[in-house]
Structures are given as structure tokens and as C-alpha cells.
Amino acid sequence: MSRNCSFRYRVVDVFTDQPLSGNALAVFPDASGIDDATMQKIAKELNLSETSFVVPATRADCAVGMRIFTPEKEMAFAGHPTIGTSFVLLDEGIIPADREQFVLEEKVGPVPIRVDTGPYPLIWLRTPPITEGRTFDRTICAQALGIDSSDLLDINPQLVSAGNPTLFIALKDRDTVDRVWLDFHGNIILKGEYHEPMCVFVFTPTSYGAYSRMFAPEYGIVEDPATGSSTGPLAAFMIRHGLISGAAGTRFISEQGTKMGRQSILHVHILGDRGQDGIYVGGNVVPVAEASMRL
Question: Which of the residues 50, 105, 106, 255 is marked catalytic?
């Protein structure tokens, strides 16, 4: 990349209808001149949970391509960048504003998007295929989080992934969710012989769905205000353990980020019995800033 190039970017708050809430995202609408190493440096410079870069798609069935970076690494898939970037693409006319369905190309593959149009559009992504992984010891999980094993529901913590391995730990109540903490030391205790990076997602069932928090120190994210890539797997995990209905058409909300002062509302829509026709995760987006970066 030549010196003295200027690249415009937008900052939007995702999974909220209020500025300075939800999960902030930087979007570079035209990043075709930025190389991989510089993308990673920009994400570290901005220091948000993720920064997304719009590039030309390599597939004919995708409107554009996306690269997604945390401050430490590139992601195969991430939810709030997918929702936030979709908003920017529609807002800038890169994708026609009245378009209700399109597909984005991410490292994980094509990600279908649908839009409930209106003054405050609700943007939905279809969760990529979900896979289940190993279970973890309840006592070790409790130790890593600084709580007692009796604070966990009688459900084995388990890795579930839609592109980003996430360890789901079900807790007894909202107060317990707010008390937990995971630092690098706790993460080392938790991982044991599992050597791949993972997200750690704690939640408790509620009358509206779930109250949640997510930690990802290996990705450079102390705590994430909203994790769309983990919310589809959350739905699958809750369905499997009878914490929500798996009936076709079921809708619920995951509230995340409240403890850290960035309340996020993530909508979930189950299509088909137990999500066999897809699990959609949706949210609102609020634009908050526009700037340029000179490199």
C-alpha cells in the first residue's frame, strides 16, 4: 500500500436503537486498497471489539466480501460486524436501501441477510452451520469464573461453534452472571488441554430469553457488549437443554452488555423445528461517527 492514502470509515453502534450503547463497530466501506497486515494494525489502533473491511466478493452470489478483525486476530465470522456492515452498505447505497435480502461473503462462507425495512430497520443474519464440541468440568469452570460450582445450573458447560468456538456456561440467576469475571489466569485454568482460542459465554435463562455476558481475552476482548456469532449457538444450546422452546417460529431476546454499561438487545428467530431451517440473529443499528484514516 502506498503512503498518504486516505480511507473513510463509519462508526456504528449495533444491537441497539440508542447511540453510545450496544456494541461499537468501525466499518471501512471501501477497503480494496488495504493489505491484510494493515487491516490488523487498524483494528488494533481503533481497539473496538471488531473492525470490518468491505472488499470485492469472489462469489457471484454475494453482494460484497467482508474481512473482520479483532484487535488481535482475523475472524472467520462475527455477528455484530455482519449486522453493522449491512447497515452501512444499505445506508450508503452500496446495496439498494429497499433490498430485503442479500448475501455477504465472509471467511466462514456466504452469510444470508434479511432486512425488516422501516424507519428503524431490523437486520437479520442467518447463523452459519452450528457444531457441538467437548464438554468442560463444572468445578473448573466455576473456579475460573470466581464463583462456586453450586452457582451453575445442572448442565455441563460445552463448546458450541458457528465459526468461533464458544464455551457456554449456564448460571442460576442474573446476579451470578454479573459477579463472574474471566482474566488471562482464569482462562488458563479453564482451557486445560484445549489449545485453540475460544469465547467464554455465561448466561442465565429469563422470561424473555437470556441474560448474557461474553469474555474473549485471547482475541484482545476483555468483555464483549454483544456477540452475534455466539447467539445462534446459544439458541441451539438452550433448545437442547430445554431452556427455551425449539418450536418453529420461536422468538426470544438475549440481553448482553448491560453489566458493562453497553446494553445490547439481540433478537433470535427459530425457523423450523429446533432450528432445522435456520437460526436468525437480528438487531438495530445506530450511526454515531464518520472519519478518515490517513496511512
Answer: 50
Grid cell at residue 243: 431452556
For the chain, give every domain's residue range: 6-126+284-294, 131-277
Mean pLDDT score of the chain:
95
CB-count exposure of residue 113 (10 Å: 0-12, 13-18, 19+): buried
**Does the 6-126+284-294 domain belong in CATH 3.10.310.10?**
yes
Q: Which CATH architecture has domain 131-277?
A: Roll (3.10)
CB burial string 42-52: b at 16+ within 10 A, e below: bbeebebbbbb
Query: What pLDDT is stored for residue 2 in this prediction?
Result: 53
Dist CA 250 CA 65 (whole Å): 31
The residue with cell 479483532 is 70
Q: Is 100 a catalytic residue?
A: no
Q: Does the pLDDT value for residue 291 go beyond 80? A: yes
